[in-house]
Design the sequence.
């Protein structure tokens, strides 16, 4: 259908006006509608809204299930307790925590004091975390030889870190 | 140094004579730190907790030896002692009420306290009387450096000092100032001040921190932001806001003195009368009355009363301290009688 006003472009806006009990239908193109001051409300598809909501919901669900491989805490658990389980959580939950930083601090980059030591080596820190977890498991499963080996290994790595 | 000596001694945050001490009771800087390569406190197994506490105790005692700190173990400590330490602001309520191995190192002046196995592995804090933001930070920074000689902190170049709660990440610092604001409360302007403070991303809390009521017209104002701003920057914001609040409080006191002197005096002397004559008095009422007496002394309306004694009573009349001084657990009714007796004695009344 062509626009009733310019009769050139395709009519995409379909209006039903009721003036003094008289019903009048008008079919206009977007340009003419704008010129006549007709507010164009985006035609929203209910299906789109629902699927958008579903996606957000699934996203939140996925977020809640994010799990730290080092300490085992899930994002949902963190949300409940308000406390993180280990330093590595800051990487695992980087996405949702980014929003928290924005809200609480309005920033995402540290600019304050720096430690004097090379404690910034996050790889070595993570390795220690993992070794400690293995040590715990070895003790729980009564593998004491393995536990002793891990304990020595942790001690060596810690002293190495301190003299670095 | 024994805990008992510590608990009966004066507390530095109530010493008169600090800068602006008619309005500012104390300044505190707290730093949250965690040891690299370990889970945060809430995820430690009891064995890991025990091992960490023993290790931290050694490290902290060694690094702070020049400060003469002593170690106090929380596990197995009598309830009254724990309460007294909380009332003195030497430990947090979280550490007092926690479980498992945890401890605190305290220096003889009670200005420095370092908690182990709190929400974070290490929570160090330094107190100064009156308004002394830069000086208190300088001392906390030094204590932090000393501990770092023995401990490798968990730190990320992007997020700074990593903490168990993301609200502390970055500097791990909370600087807070304790203010006595009876003038703004009486002139009903305190809410206005709080709204302005909140806009500066500063937090307002009561006498005993998070979630506590502002009793005795005492408030704590502290930074909320710890990431994306340097320690100096954070202190600068507080350093700009606090003097304004001091000015508003002084103004409010002037208004009270010129516009309603009879109402003001009635409040002050009624409080004085009750403090020196009551036979039973609750902890809450005591703080309200002490606040009015303190206001009266600083406005030179209540004369011949030692401000040191009044300040001290803010602390020594808390439930833990009353029981500690009596050397026994007391019921609430017994405490109220003991409290009234102690106040009368301390103020030289009969």
Sequence:
């Amino acid at each position: 259908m062509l626009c009733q006003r310019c009769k050139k472009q395709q009519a995409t806006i379909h209006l039903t006006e009721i003036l003094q009990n008289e019903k009048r239908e008008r079919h206009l193109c977007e340009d003419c509608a704008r010129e006549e001051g007709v507010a164009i409300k985006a035609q929203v598809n209910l299906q789109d809204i629902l699927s958008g909501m579903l996606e957000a919901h699934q996203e939140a669900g996925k977020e809640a299930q994010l799990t730290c491989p080092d300490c085992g805490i899930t994002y949902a658990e963190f949300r409940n307790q308000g406390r993180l389980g280990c330093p590595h959580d800051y990487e695992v939950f980087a996405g949702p925590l980014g929003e928290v930083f924005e809200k609480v601090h309005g920033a995402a980059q540290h600019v304050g004091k720096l430690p004097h030591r090379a404690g910034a080596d996050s790889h070595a820190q993570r390795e220690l975390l993992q070794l400690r977890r293995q040590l715990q498991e070895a003790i729980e499963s009564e593998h004491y030889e393995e536990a002793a080996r891990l304990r020595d290994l942790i001690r060596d790595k810690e002293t190495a870190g301190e003299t670095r | 140094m024994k805990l008992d000596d510590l608990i009966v001694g004066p507390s530095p945050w109530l010493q008169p004579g600090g800068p602006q001490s008619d309005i500012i009771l104390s300044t505190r800087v707290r730093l949250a730190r965690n040891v690299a390569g370990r889970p945060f406190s809430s995820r430690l197994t009891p064995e890991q907790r025990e091992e960490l506490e023993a290790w931290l105790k050694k490290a902290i005692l060694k690094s702070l030896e020049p400060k003469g700190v002593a170690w106090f173990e929380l596990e197995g400590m009598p309830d009254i002692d724990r309460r007294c330490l909380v009332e003195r602001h030497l430990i947090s309520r979280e550490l007092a009420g926690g479980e498992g191995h945890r401890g605190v190192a305290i220096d003889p002046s009670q200005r420095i306290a370092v908690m182990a196995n709190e929400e974070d592995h290490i929570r160090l804090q330094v107190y100064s009387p009156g308004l002394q933001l830069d000086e208190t930070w300088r001392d906390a920074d030094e204590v932090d450096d000393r501990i770092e000689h023995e401990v490798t902190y968990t730190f990320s170049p992007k997020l700074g000092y990593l903490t168990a709660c993301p609200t502390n990440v970055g500097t791990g610092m909370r600087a807070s100032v304790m203010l006595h604001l009876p003038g703004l409360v009486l002139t009903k302007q305190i809410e206005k001040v709080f709204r302005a403070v909140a806009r500066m991303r500063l937090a307002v809390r009561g006498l005993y921190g998070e979630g506590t009521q502002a009793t005795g017209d005492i408030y704590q104002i502290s930074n909320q932001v710890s990431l994306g701003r340097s320690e100096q920057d954070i202190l600068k914001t507080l350093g700009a806001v606090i003097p304004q609040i001091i000015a508003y409080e002084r103004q409010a006191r002037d208004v009270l003195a010129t516009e309603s002197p009879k109402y003001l005096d009635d409040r002050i002397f009624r409080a004085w009368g009750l403090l020196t004559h009551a036979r039973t008095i609750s902890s809450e009422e005591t703080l309200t009355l002490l606040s009015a007496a303190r206001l009266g002394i600083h406005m030179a309306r209540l004369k011949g009363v030692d401000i040191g004694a009044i300040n001290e009573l803010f602390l020594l009349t808390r439930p833990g301290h009353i029981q500690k001084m009596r050397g026994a657990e007391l019921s609430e009714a017994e405490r109220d009688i003991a409290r009234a007796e102690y106040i009368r004695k301390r103020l030289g009344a009969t």
In short: Chain A touches chain B through 46 residues (CB under 8 Å). Residues 125 and 146 of chain A are 21 Å apart (CA to CA). The helical segments of chain A are 30-35, 46-65, 75-81, 89-92, 94-104, 122-140, 144-163.
